[in-house]
Design goal:
Distance between the termini: 43 Å
Number of helices: 12
Mean pLDDT: 89
Radius of gyration: 22 Å
Oligomer: single chain
Number of strands: 26
Shape: globular
Largest sheet: 14 strands, mixed
Strand content: 25-35%
Length: 468
């Protein structure tokens, strides 16, 4: 049966759109069924409890309706999606052992170079499986665990049973249930008490196959007093058929611990990005989210912080860039569930050429969360008369002993600023690009240099020949 094709606007995305020949050692049939779930579990040789978990998740998925409160998802048909594609490669600990065509892809994306320069560990996933994972020996000696999650299911099965999809259960929403049924790949990180991982770890997810889904699972546990910076990168080449990303990120930050979780998502414009991310923060712990969302046809992404211990803190800084045919529905959620907790949300969006950027956020303060503070700041930059920017900031307050602030701004590029820059010898296109880069500077300054450069490159790709 011919798969449904979609109209996708052509855009030169440079290295991100270079396609590899579709090579695999195993692929599931299109669609979603009990037999496909059992095949995936058999292929992975999983314990029975995980097989049972997948089947229960499938039942939950089938019982839940597609959400209608956000972007239109009617173009997404699971009968057109392959949920599992195993690359023709095994998981390696040396780039030299990764098959050439896969290694070339990650070389173009700069991953081996980044690992050598500025990372303490690196994981790389290609389609449905991790093909490379490594960590510096000095971190291993400190007790830090960083491995692909399939290996963790074998070597740390008790921890996996305790934490896996407990923070984002399959019952949470339809695509969490889908993830629970077909998840594959991802990373497991455990940082022991008092350990400071002062150089970032990174996992990168590359979806190469057309008409496929990627469902990686990231589980991070940062014990008492420990610190970690984790970077997540994502990309895919562009096709004329729909692809789907429904990953899951669960972060556990214990007392006095801190985690910075940085993401640059650069999906192609045939991608439905329906991702779920959530952090549980204990007493005096800190979660920092740095988020850049680009490329996908539709995004629904709202990283959530549950401030579960007194003095817990959450900071969210995000940028979304929507262009022709894109509906990017993003934001952040914070639950203040303990006294004297603090949160800040700084969200920026850019829309151009008819793109739709939608901020959707929630700040909820429970009765027991007295003395808490929260500040939300939403800024939207609209580059033409065709584009749309909306905001739905929900604030749910259950006690009066709190300090809450919200500010929202929407506007066009200032003609006076353009004139000023042009009067200094800068051409109009570059002047506008400079203003856009300045608009996103609060995000880029929070990233390590190599990733700030990548973010600015993505901004330039989106802006190329499109402002006016």
């Amino acid at each position: 049966m011919e798969r449904q094709r979609s109209y996708i606007e052509d855009i030169d995305r440079e290295i991100y759109d270079i396609k590899d020949e579709f090579t695999y050692s195993y692929k599931s049939d299109h669609g979603l069924s009990k037999d496909i779930i059992l095949e995936i579990s058999r292929e992975k040789d999983e314990p029975k409890w995980m097989t049972d978990f997948r089947l229960r998740s499938l039942e939950i998925y089938n019982s839940m309706p597609i959400p209608t409160w956000g972007p239109d998802l009617t173009g997404l048909d699971m009968d057109d999606i392959r949920t599992y594609i195993k690359p023709d490669a095994e998981m390696e600990h040396s780039w030299d052992d990764v098959p050439g065509y896969i290694k070339d892809t990650f070389e173009r994306l700069g991953l081996p170079q980044a690992e050598r320069k500025s990372l303490a560990g690196m994981g790389a996933q290609y389609d449905s499986e991790v093909v490379y994972h490594n960590i510096r020996q000095e971190l291993v000696e400190q007790g830090v665990v960083y491995m692909d999650i399939e290996t963790a299911l074998v070597e740390y099965e008790d921890i996996m049973r305790e934490y896996f999809m407990k923070l984002i259960p399959p019952e949470d929403h339809k695509f969490a249930a889908l993830h629970g049924a077909v998840w594959s790949g991802g990373s497991f990180v455990y940082v022991p008490e008092g350990t400071d991982v002062d150089i970032p770890l990174q996992s990168y997810f590359r979806l190469n196959a057309p008409g496929a889904g990627q469902f990686e699972h990231t589980l991070i546990i940062v014990e008492k007093g420990a610190k970690l910076h984790f970077i997540e990168g994502c990309s895919a080449p562009q096709y004329k058929v729909n692809n789907l990303h429904a990953g899951c990120v669960e972060l556990f930050i214990k007392e006095d611990a801190s985690l910075r979780y940085s993401t640059i998502e650069n999906w192609s414009r045939n991608m439905y990005n329906l991702n779920s991310k959530r952090a549980l923060v204990e007493k005096n712990g800190t979660i920092e989210w740095i988020s850049g969302s680009f490329g996908s046809k539709v995004s629904m992404l709202y990283p959530m912080s549950i401030l579960n211990g007194e003095g817990a803190r959450s900071e969210f800084t995000g940028i979304t860039f929507a262009s022709t045919g894109q509906y990017l529905d993003t934001g952040a959620k914070v639950l203040h569930a303990a006294p004297h907790t603090t949160s800040t949300v700084n969200s920026k969006s850019i829309s151009k050429n008819g793109g739709h950027a939608y901020y959707r956020g929630l700040i909820k303060v429970l009765p027991e969360a007295y003395g808490s503070k929260s500040t939300v700041d939403c800024e939207s930059l609209i580059l033409d008369n065709e584009s749309v920017s909306d905001a739905l900031p929900i604030i749910d307050l259950r006690n009066d002993d709190i300090d809450i602030g919200h500010e929202a701004k929407v506007g066009r590029i200032s003609e006076e600023a353009i004139f000023y820059l042009m009067s200094r010898g800068i051409d109009e296109e570059e002047a506008k690009a400079m203003i856009v880069r300045g608009f996103v500077e609060p995000i880029t300054k929070e990233l390590p240099l190599e990733y700030a450069v990548e973010l600015n490159n993505l901004i330039n790709i989106e802006l190329e020949g499109s402002i006016g």
